[in-house]
Amino acid sequence: MEDENSIKLIKAYGRFLKDESEMKLNNSLKEVKCLKNKVEGMSVELKVKDNIQKIFRGNQFEEGGATFYEIIIDANAKFSVEKEELLNKLNVEGLVVEVDLFDIKNISKKLNFISEGIKKEVDRLSEEEEKKSDEIKRVEKSLKHFK
User: Fold this and answer.
1) 69, 121 Cβ separation under 8 angstroms
2) Are the C-beta atoms of residues 72 and 114 closer than 8 Å to each other?
3) What does the pLDDT read at residue 116?
4) Is 106:78 a contact under the CB 8 Å cutoff?
5) What is the DSSP letter of 70?
6) Nearest to 32 by CA among 88, 72, 70
7) Which of 36, 52, 65, 72 could pair with 90 as two cysteines, CB 3.0-4.6 Å apart?
């Protein structure tokens, strides 16, 4: 009789562990699916307005190097590839949950680098615009004396 009760107890505990494991697995799968949906909804494309595109196409980041626009296009392509790799890692059927934080940090560093470059260029262009505006005002003033 004791042997039967022991066997029943062990079987019941086995079912409990199986149920608990399944519940944890299902919860984890739900979290992974939710994360995957968030990643799918994220836009990794850096959009640049037409008037800014013209400026970026004409200005190189470093002398003899790529233009800002080429850097942005390259970054867009890389970010798309990295997003796809991230989605593949989150694929529930294959379930490779090793999402490398280095990938995310790498994307962040690239975005910061591009952002800093764009800010410097915008600052430089704003300064040039201000100087040209001052020069135009000065020339207009000089022309008034001739009228």
Assistant:
1) no
2) yes
3) 74
4) no
5) H
6) 88
7) 36
